[in-house]
């Protein structure tokens, strides 16, 4: 489907990384009926299609563009996203292609020594790293290659939704492909069509939340530079006084440089090469040698829809919620959405659960979005204090951080994306035992560990799993994975050195756990996890 990259070409003002062959259109006026149509073929839509295809469902995936866009988009993918991508068959390829990093450093003013540094993956011996940096177009290429392995997916690049009729039993969309218009009637529509979602707008829905009054310059430059693969962040550096800056290494000699500009700027002038060059040379030195890859200016907002489920229309990714880029919570939040939605919609489509199970997608995805929005909003407030007292507090924290551990916990250059917990999920079964703060509580994502020659998370996901310290009576609808006695790391991380069992959801979240499991307890927790108690 893909042809050679053409990074210099543009379509409608949008830079093209890779052309795709437009899918042939059905006959004009045709009406097709499908179980699921996904609108939007960015990373979230592609991942959603792969997830459902792996579960055996036929999908129509509509992409407005017949190309993979270039330019500056998502680059930071978290460990949780990598775990999800590994379940989808592209985790190892993503790590191999990307730049791996676990460490971050925060600098203040002209100090060459960080006032604070952190390890985003303090628990070692896990398959996936804390983060990788990988340009979004490379991620989309990897997902496209995986998608091509599934004949269940009818991928249609260059097919744009131009109208829709959302009903109680399904949704009909009008699609334009070239000069041809046709209709698709879908039992379920998943809107992954981004921040300017046509589906959301056409349904008269909107976001609620904050828009931040600030501007940031992204300068993606190509250069040879010897530096650790770490996240470097500056507060009030001499090369951008009174503002902040960020540096990330990407594959193929590309570096992401991010400069805070403030409000009330000339956005067009800010991206002119001669103006950007002043910032880059101020950061790197007058003798720095680099080439322009992509320059842009962005503002940001932290907002979401009130609900992500509207009848038979389901929203995921940027179509449902928007956050600042600080903490890399945008695309990672979208992957969390599809991970949560995929197994639930699968059960509904198979008739193994009622449609009300999808209400829990709305609940848990909103919890995730709110956690990401809160973290991003606090980061933005720390980066850009709105009052004199806030600025005094921020500077005091930075001054103390180099010497006092308590202050380091207050430094906020962007709380980085991690898996969000659902302690109040209606699908979870509360603990009946006292685990004394050990193990992995219900509502938390499973913790990886070596499992013989493999990894634990490679064994989990796709269906309901029982992780046990000893063989149990079979429970229909689950697969049992017994942890051998000499797998000490797994048993220690799950506080099951001698006994115990965990019920793991298809998205690798813990639904329940027991020190003394019985078939009756497991069956009750499984029914709850499938939405029978809603």
Structure, described:
Helices cover 27% and strands 29% of the residues. It has 534 residues and is α+β, with helices and mostly antiparallel strands. Among the domains are: 2-98 and 132-207 and 306-370, 3-Layer(bba) Sandwich (FAD/NAD(P)-binding domain); 450-529, Glutaredoxin. The strands form six sheets. Strands 4, 5, 12, 13, 14, 15, 21 and 22 form an eight-stranded mixed beta sheet that branches. β24 (450-451) and β25 form a beta hairpin.
Rg (CA only): 24 Å
Please count the helical segments: 14
Large-scale geometry:
globular
What portion of residues belong to β-strands? 25-35%
Distance between the termini: 44 Å
Helix fraction, binned, reads: 25-40%
Q: Do you know the CATH topology of the domain at 2-98 and 132-207 and 306-370?
A: FAD/NAD(P)-binding domain
| Biggest sheet character | 8 strands, mixed
Given helix and strand content, the structural type is alpha+beta
Q: Would you tell me the overall average pLDDT?
A: 92
The residue ranges in which pLDDT falls below 50 over 5 or more consecutive positions are 1-7
Query: CATH H level of the domain at 2-98 and 132-207 and 306-370: which superfamily?
Result: FAD/NAD(P)-binding domain
Using the 3D structure, state the CATH architecture of the domain at 2-98 and 132-207 and 306-370: 3-Layer(bba) Sandwich
Overall CATH class of the domain at 2-98 and 132-207 and 306-370: Alpha Beta
């Amino acid at each position: 489907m893909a042809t050679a990259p053409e990074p210099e070409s543009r379509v409608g003002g949008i830079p093209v990384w890779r052309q795709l062959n437009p899918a042939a259109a059905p006959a004009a006026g045709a009406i097709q009926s499908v179980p699921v149509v996904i609108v939007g073929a960015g990373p979230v839509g592609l991942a959603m299609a792969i997830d459902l295809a792996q579960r055996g469902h036929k999908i129509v995936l509509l992409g407005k563009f017949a190309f993979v866009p270039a330019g500056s988009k998502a680059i930071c993918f978290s460990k949780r996203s990598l775990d999800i991508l590994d379940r989808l068959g592209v985790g190892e390829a993503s790590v191999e292609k990307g730049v791996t990093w676990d460490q971050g450093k925060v600098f203040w003013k002209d100090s060459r020594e960080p006032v604070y540094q952190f390890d985003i993956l303090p628990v070692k011996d896990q398959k996936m790293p804390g983060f990788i940096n990988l340009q979004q177009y490379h991620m989309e290429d990897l997902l496209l290659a995986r998608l091509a392995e599934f004949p269940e997916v009818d991928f249609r690049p260059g097919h744009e939704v131009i109208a829709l009729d959302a009903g109680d039993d399904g949704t009909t969309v009008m699609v334009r492909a070239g000069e041809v218009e046709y209709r698709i009637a879908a039992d379920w529509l998943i809107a992954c069509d981004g921040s300017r979602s046509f589906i959301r707008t056409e349904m008269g829905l909107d976001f609620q939340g904050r828009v931040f009054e600030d501007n940031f310059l992204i300068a993606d430059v190509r250069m040879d530079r010897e530096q650790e693969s770490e996240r470097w962040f500056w507060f009030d550096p001499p090369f951008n006084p009174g503002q902040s800056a960020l540096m990330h290494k990407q594959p193929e000699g590309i570096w992401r440089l991010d400069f805070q500009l403030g409000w009330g700027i000339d956005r067009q002038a800010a991206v002119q090469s001669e103006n950007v060059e002043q910032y880059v040379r101020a950061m790197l030195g007058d003798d720095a040698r680099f080439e322009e890859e992509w320059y842009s200016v962005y503002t940001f907002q932290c907002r979401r829809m009130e609900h992500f489920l509207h009848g038979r229309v389901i929203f995921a990714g940027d179509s449902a919620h928007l956050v600042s880029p600080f903490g890399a919570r945008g695309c990672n939040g979208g992957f969390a959405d599809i991970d949560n939605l995929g197994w639930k919609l699968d059960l509904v489509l198979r008739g193994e659960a009622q449609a009300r199970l999808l209400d829990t997608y709305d609940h848990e995805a909103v919890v995730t979005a709110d956690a990401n929005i809160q973290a991003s909003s606090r980061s933005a407030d720390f980066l850009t204090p709105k009052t004199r007292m806030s600025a005094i507090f921020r500077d005091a924290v930075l001054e103390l951080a180099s010497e006092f551990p308590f202050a380091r916990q207050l430094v906020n250059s962007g709380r980085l994306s991690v898996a969000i917990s659902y302690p109040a999920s209606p699908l979870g079964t509360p603990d009946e035992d006292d685990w004394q703060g050990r193990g992995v509580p219900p509502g938390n994502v499973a913790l990886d560990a070596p499992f013989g020659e493999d990894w634990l998370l490679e064994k989990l996901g796709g269906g309901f799993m029982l992780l046990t310290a000893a063989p149990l009576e079979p429970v229909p609808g689950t697969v049992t994975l017994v942890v051998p006695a000499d797998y000490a790391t797994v048993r220690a991380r799950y506080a099951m050195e001698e006994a115990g069992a965990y019920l793991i959801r298809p998205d690798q979240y813990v639904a329940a756990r027991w020190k003394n499991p019985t078939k009756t307890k497991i069956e009750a927790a499984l029914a709850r996890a499938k939405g029978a108690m809603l």
